Amino acid sequence: MSVIVEHLTKHFTRSHLPAVADVSFRAPTGAITSLLGPSGAGKSTLLRLIAGLEIADAGAIHIDGVDCTGLPAQQRGVGVVFQSYALFRHMTVRQNIAFGLELRRIPRAQVATRVEEMLSLVQLDDLGERLPGQLSGGQRQRVAFARALAIQPRLLLLDEPFGALDTRVRVELREWLHALHVRTGITTLLVTHDQEEALEISQHVVVMSGGQVAQAGPPEDIYDRPTTPFVASFVGGTSILRGRVREGRAEMGSLVVSAPEAAREGEPVHAFVRPHDIKLARTPVGLGHPEGASRVQRLKPVGGYVKVLLRLPTGDELAVEVPRSEFEALGVVEGDSVLADVRSARVFVGDYAI
User: Fold this and answer.
1) Residue 261 exposed, middle or buried by CB count within 10 Å (0-12, 13-18, 19+)
2) Which of the listed residues 55, 131, 157, 223 has the most CB atoms within 10 Å of its CB?
3) Alpha-carbon distance 271 to 240, whole Å?
4) Is residue 100 scored above 80 in pLDDT?
5) 239-349 homologous superfamily
6) What's the per-residue H, E or C state across the chain?
7) Contact residues for 321 (Cβ-Cβ < 8 A; gap 6+)
8) For residue 261, what pLDDT is reported?
9) Fold of 3-234
C-alpha cells in the first residue's frame, strides 16, 4: 500500500508563502517514511493534507492507487496519532479504543474482540478499565496507537507522537514502534524534527524545508550523501568551514579534503564536517603552537565521548566528538595545541551564508 503525493500545495493566507509548496514524493509500501525537518517546514500540514484534515489548494494524493484528494477524512482509510494523545478523559482505555469501531456500527461482539486484540498488541492487557489520567505518558500514547489501529487502517499517520515524552520513554517507544511495525507491516508516515529518530526507525526519509522537499531517499543516503547545503547542515550536527579550490582539493586553512569534480581552480567552497569525522593528534612536545595546529578552546565530557571545541588557525571554530578512551590517550587539556585531520566532509561549490 503506497502513498503518492504529487505537486501538493496549501496556502492558509494568500498574503503569505504557502505552508506546503509543490510537494511530490512516494512513500514505499509497508515502510516507515519520516517527514523530517525543522519547525515550520510544513511537515504537520502535509500530514493533515494526507489525512484529509486539511484541503489542498492544488496537487493530488493517491493512497493505495486511489485518488483521495477530494475524499473526506473518514473515507480515506487512515489512522492518525497525535503528539497530544487526543484521548477522551472520561472514557476508559477500552472505551477509547472502541470509539472508532462503534462509530462504524461494528457489532458489539466484534468490537469487544478487536479491543482485546489491540490491548494485547500494545501490551496494555491489564489496564483496560483505567482512565487516561491514571496512565503514564508512554501508556497513553500506546492507547492512542491502539485506537488508531483498531479500525484496521490502510495507512498510519503519526504527528510527532513522542514529542511530549521524556528522553528515556521516547527511546523506549521508538523500539516499541519498530517492533509494532514488524508485526503489522502497515505503511506509516511519521512527522518528526528529531533526526536520530528518523534515521533510526525509518526505511525512507523526506527532508522538508520551507514547505518543500529538500531531499528524499533511504536514511543512509540522507546522512552520507546530502544533495543540498540545507540537508548537509540539518542532518548530523555539522560545522561549516569555508575555503577555496587548490589543485583539485578544497583547502580550508590547514584542513584539506577532496573538492567536487565540477569545482574550478580558485572557486570558493564550503564544507560540512560532522563532529565524529575529525581525527585529533597531539602536537609534538616542545613545539609550542606550530603552524597549522588548532587550539583546544573547550572540553566537555558527555557519557562515552568528549565534546571538543577547536579554534582553527583561520579563526573558525570546529566541533569534534572523540570517544572517551581515545581522548584520555591524547592527554590534552584546554589551551593545548592539536593537529586536526578531516576524514570525511561534504563539500559544495560557492559561498554559504549562515
Assistant:
1) exposed
2) 157
3) 6
4) yes
5) Nucleic acid-binding proteins (2.40.50.140)
6) CCEEEEEEEECCCCCCCCCEEEEEEEECCCCEEEEECCCCCCHHHHHHHHHCCCCCCEEEEEECCEECCCCCHHHCCEEEEECCCCCCCCCCHHHHHHHHHHHCCCCHHHHHHHHHHHHHHCCCHHHCCCCHHHCCHHHHHHHHHHHHHHCCCCEEEEECCCCCCCHHHHHHHHHHHHHHHHHHCCEEEEEECCHHHHHHHCCEEEEEECCEEEEEECHHHHHHCCCCHHHHHHCCCCEEEEEEEECCEEEECCEEEECCCCCCCCCEEEEEECHHHEEEEECCCCCCCCCCCEEEEEEEEECCEEEEEEECCCCCEEEEEEEHHHHHHHCCCCCCEEEEEECCCEEEECCCCC
7) 275, 276, 305, 306, 307, 308
8) 87
9) Rossmann fold (3.40.50)
Sign for the CA dihedral angle at 85, 86, 91, 96 comes to negative
How far apart CA 237 and CA 155 sit, in angstroms, is 32
pLDDT score at 86:
86
Overall pTM surpassing 0.90 (yes/no): no
Q: Alpha-carbon Rg of the chain, whole angstroms? A: 25
Q: What is the mean pLDDT of residues 108-134?
A: 95
User: Does the pLDDT at position 320 exceed 90?
Assistant: yes
C-alpha cell at 158: 503519526
- Whole-angstrom distance, CA of residue 263 vs CA of residue 113: 64
In the chain, the amino acid numbered 329 is A
Give the C-alpha separation, 147 to 93, whole Å.
9
Using an 8 Å Cβ cutoff, are 179 and 151 in contact? Answer: no
Cα-Cα-Cα-Cα dihedral sign, residues 265, 353, 321, 330: positive
Q: Where are the domains of the chain?
A: 3-234, 239-349
Render the burial of 115-128: b for 16+ CB within 10 Å, e for the rest. beebbebbebeebb
Q: What's the pLDDT tens digit per position in 38-61?
A: 999 999 999 999 999 999 999 999
